[in-house]
Specification:
Chain lengths: ~500, ~500
């Protein structure tokens, strides 16, 4: 653990959930209570529902007010109406609460001057009493090591990526979407309006957190530009820091203002901030996901722009080659000696060994041989592979040829085993060749393959376009970082 | 049927499949035979496998040579080695065959001068004998009305989109991918090297074919530029014509040359050809798919750039608004009177009625009311909807709350029924409002919803980005077409 002043916020003991409905686990606030209880939080640290109208909620004793809960309470999650929050802040102060997560919305984001003023008053009073506020208008904390989560399906295992997000929905999209691709998180914070704790506070914390190796953020507006820039610089100097900015066009900025009360500001200034600080700016949610994959797999060590593309049909290879070039990467023609070695066992008709390597061989051993020869070629910095006994939407091999066995209960497990073997083949090739190997794999069946490949440091992207774009952005970012300390 | 000289090629009677393996339906040539037989082609028109080494294949009588087949044979599908093709051409001539589909590869695309010369000789001899050649190095014909198909899973019902493609894999990606989104085809032609029949021949045919309303093409190289331009102009003048060009970068061009022997040429010239002819140039496979959806649904009538975005979470709405603006569309703030009408029943906290309309109401009747009010607002030309009792990855409603019922055999049918109802709701709103409604729906569960929505003229796109991009391209294309006859 770090000595950072925010450290304790991520490791609360007892939590009170204020404003739970009498039924206990209905609605979003009920989800908070329900997911903490399901994780066993009440047994480990204490979990106190607060509602004056009932004595028990979801099998837990319910307290009439925060002040009636057993001491101490570290963290409060609240969904009471906005106008009742000042009283709750007084209770937090009296109780010695360290952090107050206001799920409650209806403050500055409404555009109502009176509610914006109320938000400021609440924060001033809380700060004066030593209570830090997360929100309002947000989902709060996900800390898997502490079993703290704002969404039921999030992974329970911790990892090394920290996310900060002004949007709860986008936080869920990042954690949920990247979890499917194998990524695990140290912490995620949805902080909504950011009335007290803001992006710069969390970036500052992330820079020092030993559990965090990679930082990513979704930001709508920055009120304290200087603090933000300084924190971003400190963080990006030591860890890959990937930022997605919402509200870059007037319509998006209007939406951001309605959403979190943010004044989105100029995207040119934001872009300049990212460039100068050494952060990476993602321009879409897909970019953010793909860049996290790129910097947490062997792809982060890619030495240059030379891509070898192995496998796939003729016309698909043509479009893939175009996509690689569009992303600013090269698809160098392979040296004559490499081509000669490949021609020793690749049939001529309907194939090419120039690059893309458009081959029609199914046998796994031959395919390994192709990868080895290609990886050894001088102009190749990274291999994109579409075949290794694995088709574009799942493990191939016998796919579609199992006949009745497809309905077999064992078929799913056999498919999963083939997917694991395919992932292992990619990983072994990557290890022995010393250059990154990218697996192209999307679709609903990709789960097992993606998880295993990621565990072994192999990046999986759903399309050539996205793989090439992520690597192009990574290389551009690395060039910009020159002069800063190496972080890989 | 049209009087076009190619018409008869699309309506062959008896077909011979030359070079089938003795086992009958193994390998790709076996697939051709197998899928024709499965479609009952042998009973309706005659289907003759040719292989001198066996007397029966897949339950069909097998003939030693083409000349031994019963008269007449209209169409020949061949996979014999390249060097044996000249003899087959002589047999075709003698037999009065009208079209020869050479699946066989190994001609000009190998880069071997001798094989390129052989390809030219074959075509010259065939033409002189009145035999048209499709290919070599291609998958040939898909004509659902004639039960003619080169891929097992293609829809058996005909539609009104004609595809021509130099790539078999890309032809499959177009037909298969768009079929999942509800599109049906009049014809698809995979013509590979295009040694005889080329893009301009098929474009010329497509322009006059009464079964075809929309034309789309994947092209790698054009050898007869003037003919291509003239045919493209004729076709694009009367039907929406969407072209994807492969080989736009040097690496892609090299791949195209290895794939179909094509000389890809300058993309600037190609782009200019498309602009001058009134065609739409797609720059990726996704674009091609999305443009076909756009021109075959009510989206084709979109009157301007004004988008209203309904539903979805706060941060997601912010990014969506940015994506709409990035695509060159507007997300106009709704008029005060529209906002007032929406505020009558939309709660304030955490919502916005300015546009994007970020609402948290689940009830279907209320949602219909929202759509009606928004559709009536003057600056709105098209509505993007993410909610109508349907979540982003399938019918929501009770999703995740069915408990044990999720395993119920009836659950799938209930989900399908909800998906149909949701699609019908979009269609009804589109009909009554008179402006296009776009449904945002992706993921594996989208099938039923997409099919039903498309049947009723509602465009479904997987993401806001893709919907906005397709509409932006459609509007740009329409502006360029000014002066040409209206085609919608």
């Amino acid at each position: 653990m770090s000595e950072h002043p925010l450290e304790q916020i991520f490791h609360p003991r007892a939590i009170a959930v204020v404003g739970v409905p009498s039924q206990g686990t209905s609605g979003r606030i009920g989800d908070f209570l329900g997911s903490l209880k399901a994780a066993g939080y009440h047994e480990q640290h204490g979990l106190y529902p607060v509602n004056p109208k009932t004595e028990e909620v979801a099998g837990l004793r319910c307290y009439p007010t925060l002040l009636d809960c057993p001491d101490p309470v570290d963290h409060v999650i609240s969904q009471i109406p906005a106008r009742a929050v000042p009283l709750l802040v007084e209770q937090c102060a009296e109780k010695g609460v360290r952090s107050l997560h206001l799920f409650t919305a209806g403050f500055s984001e409404t555009g109502d001057a009176e509610m914006a003023a109320l938000e400021r008053e609440i924060v001033e009073r809380a700060r004066a009493a030593g209570v830090r506020v997360i929100g309002p208008n947000c989902m709060g904390l996900y800390v898997p090591a502490e079993r703290l989560s704002f969404m039921g399906g999030f992974p329970t295992e911790p990892g090394h990526v920290l996310l900060l997000s002004q949007s709860g929905a986008n936080a869920s999209a990042v954690v949920g979407g990247l979890a499917q691709r194998g990524v695990r998180f140290s912490k995620a914070i949805s902080f909504g309006n950011g009335a007290d704790l803001q992006a710069h506070d969390f970036l500052d914390y992330a820079a020092t957190d030993p559990e965090t190796e990679v930082v990513t953020a979704y930001i709508e507006g920055v009120t304290e530009g200087r603090n933000f820039f300084e924190a971003l610089k400190r963080c990006a100097a030591v860890k890959p820091t990937i930022i997605l900015k919402g509200g870059i066009h007037p319509a998006g900025a209007r939406a951001a203002h309605s959403h979190t009360g943010s004044l989105a500001g100029s995207i040119d200034i934001f872009e300049a901030l990212c460039r100068q600080s050494g952060a990476i700016r993602a321009t879409s949610m897909d970019d953010l996901h793909d860049l996290v994959i790129a910097v947490t797999t062997e792809v982060r060590r890619v030495a240059g722009r030379g891509v070898a593309l192995v496998g796939g049909g003729g016309g698909i290879a043509v479009l893939s080659a175009d996509a690689i070039a569009t992303a600013g990467l090269d698809l160098p023609e392979l040296p004559a000696e490499t081509q000669r070695q490949l021609r020793e066992f690749i049939p001529v008709a309907g194939t090419s060994v120039r690059n893309p390597i458009d081959i029609n061989i199914g046998a796994s051993d031959d395919m390994r041989r192709v990868y080895r020869i290609v990886a050894a070629a001088e102009p190749v910095d990274v291999i994109f592979g579409t075949s290794f006994g694995v088709g574009p939407s799942g493990p191939a091999g016998n796919q579609g040829r199992d006949g009745d066995a497809a309905d077999d209960a064992g078929a799913a497990e056999r498919a999963a085993e083939r997917a694991r073997q395919a992932a292992d083949s990619f990983a072994e090739l990557q290890e022995e060749s010393g250059i990154p190997v990218v697996a192209l794999q999307g679709g609903p069946q990709a789960g097992t393959f993606q998880q295993r490949a990621y565990e072994r440091g192999v990046a999986v992207f759903p399309t050539v376009e996205r793989a090439a774009r992520a690597i192009g952005m990574l290389l551009e970012w690395r060039t910009r970082r020159e002069g800063l300390p190496a972080i890989f």
